[in-house]
Amino acid sequence: MGGTSGGGYKACAESERIGRFTLELKLPAGDSPGISQITGRVLDGIDPRSVWQELASAEGCQVIIGPTSTCAVACPSGMVCRAGTCAPEPASHGVGTVNVTGLAIPVTMMPLTNKSYYGPIPSGTSFPPFTPGLPIGLQAAGGDYAPFTLTATGIDLLDVPADQPLMLVTKTPNPPLTVRWSAPTRAGSTRMELLMDIAHHGGVAAKLACDLPDTGSGTIPGGLLDTLVGRGTAGFPEITLTRQSVDSTTITPGCVEFGVTLSVAVPLMVDGVISCSDDTQCPATAPTCSGQKCI
Questions:
Q1: In what order do the strands lie in the sheet with 35-42?
Q2: Where are the domains of the chain?
């Protein structure tokens, strides 16, 4: 089983995704130029550790919590807990030579020794290394599976205004939160993922993830913000916006996708949370730095 796909936005369901190739853009920062690179990996089954559970949802957003092991005894190295039983963790497989076209300089990748793929875009290549709106093709020769072809679309660069009020409250109900970003020049081929993480330094209790139309703004329901806050907080909370174009197809073990992505992370204010790296940054009323938060 292999296939050819393309046209529109078509991502794998998280519970079905066994592989992904990503052409990732990183914006210029300071004296560093913009960076583009392609990575990929295909497994022979679903990794249960990558499938988060929905706690609440509304209007394209979900509060999700990490999978909880149902195995009575911790599984040894190389094994994962699947439906209450320790089973071999999914293994990486080569899918043959992978060619990516539609770029200023086409990229050819062979599987590395660990069966993953990596293809840096040569330095000096234009950034982004494609024309926004035009197709970018990925062709896999097949390797352990049948050949497949995926077609994503070149995306516009992303800007997130720094002056917008992005704040959560912890003692009263949150109102809906609207997030703004630069709209794409062409509608329909990209989506916007918003990922809100307010407890990543204290051990992730939960995340809020939104899959929204890429129109330049999106609103997160206040009730979901309250649910997220109720799961705990830590220092340096942030929200990450990811513009992406994605295509997918089905091969023997499951769904594999190809995405063109660009992410921008911006600070998120959480009422009552004072972020810190050590105790010296904390006030007398909350003198200890724990979970990168003054307590």
A1: 53-58, 61-65, 207-213, 191-197, 238-251, 254-267, 17-26, 35-42, 117-120
A2: 3-68+80-294
